[in-house]
Amino acid sequence: MLQAIDLVKRYGPVLALDGFSLSVAAGEIVGLVGHNGAGKTTFVEIVSYLIRQDGGHVTIDGRPPSASRGRVGVAPQHIALYPSVTVREHLTLFGKLAGLRRAALDSAIEELTVALRLGAFIDRRTAALSGGQQRRVQAATALIHRPGLLLLDEPTAGADLETREAMLDVVKQRAGDGAAIVYTTHYLPELVELQATIAVARNGRIIARGTYDELVDGLPGEVRLIHDNEEEVRVSTTQPAATLIDLLGRAERPISTIEVHNPSLDDLYRSLAVSDAP
Amino acid sequence: MLLDTGYRPGPAAALRESLYRIRALANNNTLIRLRDPGQTISYVVMPMVLMLVLKPLYVRAVEGGTTKVVTGLLVMFSVFAISIAGNAILAERTWKTWDRLRVSRAPAAELLIGKTLPIYVVMVAQQTILLVYGCLVIGLPIPGNVPLVLGAILLWAFTLLAIGALLAAIVRSHGELSVITDVGALTLSSLGGALVPLSLMPEWAQVAAQASPGYWALEMLQAAVSGDAAGVVRPAAILLGIALVCGVFAIRRLTRGWGRGGLL
Ligand SMILES: Nc1ncnc2c1ncn2[C@@H]1O[C@H](COP(=O)(O)OP(=O)(O)OP(=O)(O)O)[C@@H](O)[C@H]1O
Ligand SMILES: [Mg+2]
């Protein structure tokens, strides 16, 4: 569905994208993670044809972004809503711009109102909404026309638990319906929950891509044994369970606390993305 | 299922869809205008007050003083109304909503038409209200050729809209925009003879006036209200030229967008 090859984007001396390649299949959720300034938003902007790349190319369903207007749903990282316009009026505007007519529009608004829990403030102006409420509205305006490609740039930034859950449910459902989804976040457990393919960006390129298990498998975890608030042993290991049994058998003093730290996405993130970020 | 199947309509259906999107955009922009009408109201009420106050002065100072005071203040405050257009378009940039619209199915031309149509209506209404007020309250003779007057208003409003769109596309903040529109409007329109009748101004100013769109608007409107169709042609052509140049440039700039840059 989405194919980006070797994208390059320069801002003066800054290389925002430096050979960025990423593909997303229909029905696939790609969780795009990476340090601040890694180029995630720049990638989203190029795919949505808001800015032009200096090198490389992008196709959406075989077509360039310029020929894909309206076929992509974009929820930008920063809130971009009309302050004096109500939530319902926003959904109507974006639905109509995508060509939805009365009945289809009404049912799309109804569906998103339930799914993203907009009911309580659907007739309020967006300027009067909280940050998390605005987030949900922004996502709803991107989802209203059921686009085949969804670009959600930090859709859960600043979101509370309820917003997060609602968002993840909708994203899963849309992927189930066959949409290709790019989902950027700094909150990695979301990607496990979404069963997303994880793509790690660093300094303008993708340096790792795979499922959670593929990426985390083989990373070292950690086992700590503590004796009276005093660390007895700390071992970094790819097999925490076996190591724990072995260590307990050899402990010389009584152990008060055992900590087993299985390798997680955060470890992966740290080992790949953050270690030598600029 | 996903609704977006990439279906491409034939020409008649494409036009219908295009009009549907323009209407949606225009509706949205009308809502925004109606909820924040302050600027519009003041640009209608202020010239009304000034016309009343200044009329005796004009009548004593120049021949046809009533026509001059009405058309002069109308032009001056219609130039101020450039800032309504400018602010409305610039706001789309500061709210970042312009980029949201740019990723929609509506091409740039539709976005611009949908954006500017309600503002155009506001500008035409402003000028029409002021003219009607001029006839009813100030004593401007009722124009013999109403379609001519209406045509002049439509063209002048279009020119102002194009200038406003251009300004909104090149400035970096609302502050910059208001400097240009307030100072620019005052200078251009008074230099054009909107505040003080040109015949009372120094000679150099009378020559310089011709560089101001306000001057040509005044010529056009004065000819139109006195029913002089031939006198309308030249200023109308010049204004149309200005409008097209500004409009084309504004469309090109707004189509390209700014990404994250462009604003202060
Ligand atoms: N318009 C611009 N002008 C100059 N530099 C820019 C511009 N847009 C992006 N950049 C630079 O490009 C790089 C990538 O930025 P980008 O916003 O894509 O990062 P990101 O991965 O989305 O970061 P974050 O997690 O903070 O959102 C950064 O160094 C940024 O400063
Ligand atoms: Mg970003």
From TrEMBL, chain A:
InterPro entries xref list: AAA+_ATPase (IPR003593), ABC_transporter-like_ATP-bd (IPR003439), ABC_transporter_ATP-binding (IPR050763), P-loop_NTPase (IPR027417)
Main localization (coarse): membrane
PANTHER family, A to Z: ABC TRANSPORTER ATP-BINDING PROTEIN, ABC TRANSPORTER ATP-BINDING PROTEIN NATA
SUPFAM superfamilies found in the cross-reference section: P-loop containing nucleoside triphosphate hydrolases
One annotated GO biological process: response to antibiotic
Membrane topology term: Peripheral membrane protein
Gene Ontology cellular component annotations, sorted alphabetically: plasma membrane
Subcellular location: Cell membrane
Source taxon at top rank: Bacteria
Record flagged with keyword Nucleotide-binding: yes
Keywords annotated in UniProt: Antibiotic resistance, ATP-binding, Nucleotide-binding, Transport
UniProt domain ABC transporter: residue ranges: 2-228
UniProt-recorded name of the protein: ATP-binding cassette domain-containing protein
Similarity-based family: Belongs to the ABC transporter superfamily.
Molecular function as annotated in GO: ATP binding; ATP hydrolysis activity
Keyword Nucleotide-binding: yes
Alphabetized Gene3D superfamilies for the sequence: P-loop containing nucleotide triphosphate hydrolases
Automatic annotation (TrEMBL), chain B:
Listed transmembrane segments: 40-58, 70-91, 112-142, 148-171, 183-200, 232-251
Domain spans labelled ABC transmembrane type-2: 34-257
InterPro entries cross-referenced by the UniProt entry: ABC2_TM, ABC2_TM_bact-type, ABC_2_transport, Nod_factor_ABC_transporter
UniProt-listed PROSITE patterns: ABC_TM2
Alphabetized GO MF terms: ABC-type transporter activity
GO aspect biological process, one term: response to antibiotic
Keyword Phosphoprotein set for record: no
Subcellular location: Cell membrane; Membrane
UniProt keywords, alphabetically: Antibiotic resistance, Cell membrane, Membrane, Transmembrane, Transmembrane helix, Transport
Major subcellular location class: membrane
A GO cellular component entry from the record: ATP-binding cassette (ABC) transporter complex
Coiled coil stretches, renumbered: none
Membrane topology summary: Multi-pass membrane protein
Any Pfam family hit: ABC2_membrane
Record's keyword annotation contains Membrane: yes
Family: Belongs to the ABC-2 integral membrane protein family.
Record protein name field: Transport permease protein
Organism: Herbidospora solisilvae
